[in-house]
Structures are given as C-alpha cells and as structure tokens.
C-alpha cells in the first residue's frame, strides 16, 4: 500500500530544494497502468509535452493549470480531470502536488 500524503509531503519538500522547483516519483507500474506523484513549487511548470494514450490528473494539494491548444483547465485540491489528447503543459499556481494516472496503449 502507498501512503499518498507521505509521498506528497516528501516530494514537495524535494521540489522546494530542487533548482527546477519539481520532484516526481513513479510509484505504481502495473501492466499498462502508471501512477506518478508530481510536486511543483508555485510558479514552476512542466513544459509542453505529448499526451499519453489515456491519462487523468488529480490535485492532492494546491492549485494547477493544465495548458493546451484547446484551452486551459484549472484544478484545485481534490479536483480531477482528464488530460487532453494533445500536447499540453502543467503550471503550479501555488505549491502543488498532483497524482498523474496514465495508461500506455
């Protein structure tokens, strides 16, 4: 079993110490399923990148924006959204931790 709160706290601490303001950990890899905790310090981003086959993003703490060509999606703690099926980025409005769930096709 994985303690998401402990992972979130640890990676947010690591993100604050990182020059790029981020930390991530793939903690579940089962067949095509992947789950990753990503921590971003407020004001930092993950640059635009390709979308996986299927994915969702749940905010465990903070406030983030998923940016894409079809528009931005703001998410706050406890909210969940599908990742757009196109290139997209992620920006932390404030110190944030998200749970990325992907299915590789």
Structure report:
With about 100 residues, the chain is mainly beta. The protein is about 15% helix and about 55% strand. The protein is built from 1 helix and 9 strands, in the order H-E-E-E-E-E-E-E-E-E. The chain has one helix at about 5-15; strands at about 20-30, 35-40, 45-50, 55-60, 65-70, 75, 80, 90, 95-105. The strands form 2 sheets. It has a 5-stranded antiparallel beta sheet, covered by helices on one side. A 4-stranded antiparallel beta sheet has the order 3-8-5-6, with no helix packed on it. Strand 5 (about 65-70) and strand 6 form a beta hairpin. The protein starts with a helix and ends with a strand. The mean pLDDT is about 95.
What series of H and E elements makes up the topology? HEEEEEEEEE
Shape: globular
Tally of contiguous helical segments = 1
Mean pLDDT: 94
Low-confidence stretches: none
Count the E strands.
9
Helix- and strand-based class?
A: mainly beta
Computed Rg: 13 Å
How much of the residues is beta strand, in percent? over 45%
Strand order of the largest sheet: 1-2-9-4-7
Measured between the Cα atoms of the first and last residue, the distance is: 25 Å
Helix fraction by DSSP (H/I, runs of at least 4):
10-25%
- Main sheet characteristics: 5 strands, antiparallel
